[in-house]
Structure formats: C-alpha cells, structure tokens
Specification:
The protein is α/β, with parallel strands linked by helices and 296 residues long. The chain has 10 helices and 13 strands. The chain starts with a strand and ends with a helix.
Length: 296
C-alpha cells in the first residue's frame, strides 16, 4: 500500500499542499485529478522523489520515495519527457537497461510495437510513438509502482486504445498504477479509485461510480416510441420535452421512472424503439467540486 499523510508543500508564501491525505491500494489503478494549480503535479513529484516536501509523510510499500527510487520500486512516465533527438529507439532502450543494470529489454519494444522502429531517431517519432517509448523505458526494471502523467495526451484513437490495453495488462500482472489525467472518460474507464485535489486539499476519494452518484444535477430519461401516443400521465417523470422525435423527462427516481415508462408502453400498445438514461458524468462531479471547493 502507498500512504500519503498530511502532505504539505509551500513555494515561498504560496501554500500549494495543505495537508493531503490518501492511500493507494496494491495492484489498483488510482487517478489523481485536479484543476491547474490545485497541487496535483506537486503531489505526484513528491511521491516520485523528484521534489522535497515541507512536512507530512509518504510511504511506498514501507519506504520513503527516495528509497523506493534507489531500490527501483517505482517507474515514471512524465508528461514532458524527452530524449536527445539523435538517439535511436534501440539505443534508448540499451541506455535505460544499462542504467538499471539489466539485460536489453527487446520484449518491451515488441510489446509497444516499436521493434521495427529500432533504428529511427527520437526526433523522427510521432507523438504516439514517443509516448509508447517512454512507457517502455519506464518499465525496463519491472517497477512495482508506475506513475503515468497524462499518458495518452495527443494520441489518436487507435494509439489510445492500445495504450489503455497495456495499462490494464500491467495491472493484471500486479503493477500498482498512479495516473494523472484530464481525460475523465479515460479515468472512468481505467481507474479503480480517484482522488480530487482542489486548492491544495483532497476533496473527494473513491470509486468513480460513487463520486458520480453525488452529482447535484437534474437526471433525464430519453424515450423513443413508435405509434400513436395517448395522453401521458406520470408521477415520477416531469418536465416533458420533445426533441427531434425523442421524449425527454426529468426524474429524481430513475428506477420508478423507468417502471412507469415500461408500464405505459405496455398499456398503450406502443413499440419501444429506444430508451436511455442521461447519467451524470465524472466530469460534471469534478467541475462541481472544483467550483464549490466542497469536501465529501
């Protein structure tokens, strides 16, 4: 387990972290979210051993971040990583393997579809190819904990999907992953739990589904019928709207509202063409917390 307790960090008079507390369970994918300037990057850098903190405690499987780095417990893929433009893909892997005193990891290049690019120089690689290379390099020593900062930023759909598969595969093999991303769909798809930092404090921690459940936003049910509609009278469905053949209802009790729709459809002899719930999103909850600075 990874624990962060009462983490504080200031730059001069600017208090960036004001007592951050959270844990990351072994073999889970945990996302750190926060608006720009909230302290997310500083928290990551402290955990990665890249930045000193003023007070508090960070333990990575019982070790300090610096000790974890020395032991090779962690691997890091930074958002703004870069390599010399003239270095080839193969030589970059050889260099990192030499630093970690291990044999050449050609298997990682193959896994990331980089084997055929072995002779290409770093400056000639696409954004997606560079990100895959950086991930391969971060995995050379098989770290127990992997930090990923915006791992799919700038990637096309195919490259994103491939990288998501690799991240899930790493979790299945036992790697604990801490992810920072502004892509809420990515976070909901990949992560077991998330932590939201706002103004230097942790405002919410939990499974994305549980955090989304707190959205203070109207919920809607959209229905499309075929046939002549009789007069509609519902108890749990209100504010009826008609938008391009789609009937839209607001509801505070979705289960009861759905039952009313199904009962009405059966009584009226209509054909139910489509029905969908307009579920709140993690992004909506994130914006709600960021604007209100509230704590769960």
């Amino acid at each position: 387990m990874i624990t962060v307790k009462n983490l504080c960090k200031s730059y001069g008079k600017n208090r960036v972290l004001k007592g951050i507390d959270f844990t990351v369970k072994e073999k889970e994918i945990f996302a750190l979210l926060g608006p720009n300037g909230a302290g997310k990057t500083t928290t990551l850098e402290c955990m990665e051993g890249l930045r000193e903190f003023d007070s508090g405690e960070i333990q990575i499987f019982g070790e300090s971040p610096k000790k974890a780095v020395e032991r090779g417990t962690i691997g890091v893929q930074l958002q703004s990583s870069s390599l010399p433009g003239s270095i080839t893909v193969t030589d970059a892997m050889k260099l990192f393997c030499s630093w970690n005193r291990i044999n050449f990891r050609g298997d990682l290049l193959e896994k990331m579809d980089l084997t055929e690019l072995g002779k290409k120089t770093y400056k000639t690689l696409s954004t997606g190819q560079k990100r895959k290379l950086h991930l391969a390099l971060a995995l050379t020593h098989e770290p127990k904990v992997l930090f990923l900062d915006e791992p799919t930023a700038g990637l096309d759909v195919e490259a994103r999907a491939h990288l998501h598969q690799e991240i899930k595969a790493l979790k299945e093999k036992g790697t604990t992953i801490i992810l920072a991303s502004h892509d809420m769909a990515e976070v909901e798809s990949l992560c077991d739990r998330v932590g939201m930092i706002v103004q230097g404090k942790m405002r919410a921690v939990g499974h994305p589904r549980d955090i989304v459940a707190e959205v203070k936003k109207e919920q809607w049910v959209e229905v499309q019928w075929e046939g002549t509609l009789p007069k509609m009278e519902f108890h749990y469905l209100t504010d009826h709207q008609m938008i391009q053949g789609i009937h839209r209802f607001k509801t505070e009790k979705r289960l009861q509202g759905l039952r009313e729709i199904l009962d009405f459809t059966e009584r009226s002899g209509l054909e139910l063409v489509d029905i969908r719930l307009q579920k709140p999103s993690l992004e909506e909850r994130f914006i709600e917390i960021a604007k209100g600075g509230e704590s769960l």
